[in-house]
Design goal:
The chain has a single domain, classed as Up-down Bundle (Fumarate Reductase Cytochrome B subunit), CATH 1.20.950.20. By secondary structure, the protein is mainly α. Strands 1-2 form a two-stranded antiparallel sheet. The protein has 7 helices and 2 strands, in the order βαααααααβ. The structure holds protoporphyrin IX containing FE.
Length: 245
């Protein structure tokens, strides 16, 4: 194969692409509603009903986000070779591969990869880790804040007063709750809210880096990188580094 011949490679299978775009849409919605929740008073959202309705909407989209992520975890064991976890997590000689890739960027003829390039692997891994923590902290807060599944029943049964029906207690309503336990639940849930909030900022930053890296790669010769996540195919000039991977 001579250096300049362009060849098309099948890379992202359909489930991986569906995961990617459902994830993009869910995160944009969760960020948008999350920022409205964060700025409720500035936006004049005062009523308890509105506060709870916003959280309910955020959580329902959070369920879509979480189920999509769970599906991606499973697909990492069943998808094509570029969808599988070994294609994302650093393998043998990763650091050597990363520095040779970085050097190739400096030469102006970046090494080409069918799957993730070594730098891309690091950012994707960081993003997946943050997504998992966002899902877990969000689900915990969904239970402790407004008694939503999967942990809502546990939280309600913990705070309900003896002899009262835990199914009857309402979010932010102290009727039929044991005030001691209600206070304990509040301090238990606080760190999860803090992690959730600050990781959402980190996620915004990681997503901006991800987009900037794709745009930079597109501009420096790796054409069709973004469209590959729609078509599933990548056109690469020359010999890809991971052709035998
Ligand atoms: C990447 C995905 C997500 C992003 C970017 C995100 C973003 C946010 C933001 C910015 C807030 C702050 C609002 C505030 O502190 O008032 C928030 C709060 C919250 N999120 Fe998410 N979220 C995500 C996923 C989830 C998921 C999966 C769930 C649950 C299924 C969830 C449930 C909650 C709950 C219950 C709160 C209220 C916590 C509190 O008031 O501190 N979130 N989220």
């Amino acid at each position: 194969m001579n250096e300049l011949s362009v060849k098309e490679y099948r890379v992202w299978d359909l489930p991986t692409r569906l995961f990617h775009w459902i994830n993009v849409f869910a995160i944009l919605m969760l960020m948008f509603i999350g920022l409205i929740m964060l700025n409720k008073s500035a936006l004049g959202i005062q009523s308890m009903e509105a506060k709870i309705a916003l959280k309910q909407l955020h959580i329902v989209i959070g369920y879509v986000f979480t189920l999509n992520l769970l599906w991606r975890v499973v697909w990492g064991f069943a998808g094509n070779k570029h969808a599988r976890w070994p294609a994302i997590f650093p393998g043998k000689n990763f650091l050597a591969g990363l520095s040779s890739y970085k050097n190739s960027l400096k030469t102006g003829t970046p090494q080409q990869f069918i799957g993730h390039n070594p730098a891309g692997k690091l950012s994707i891994m960081a993003i997946y880790l943050v997504l998992v923590i966002m899902a877990v902290t969000g689900l915990i807060r969904a239970g402790t804040d407004i008694y939503f599944p999967p942990f809502g029943t546990i939280a309600a049964e913990y705070v309900v007063k003896d002899g009262a029906d835990s199914a009857q207690i309402r979010p932010y309503d102290k009727t039929d709750v044991n005030l001691e336990k209600y206070k304990a639940l509040k301090s238990f849930k606080k760190p999860f809210g803090t992690v959730h909030l600050y990781l959402s900022y980190l996620l915004m930053f990681l997503i901006l880096i991800h987009i900037a890296a794709v745009v930079k790669a597109e501009l420096s010769g790796s054409h069709g990188l973004a469209s590959a996540m729609l078509s599933g195919r990548k056109r690469i000039a020359g010999r890809p580094e991971d052709i035998d991977a």
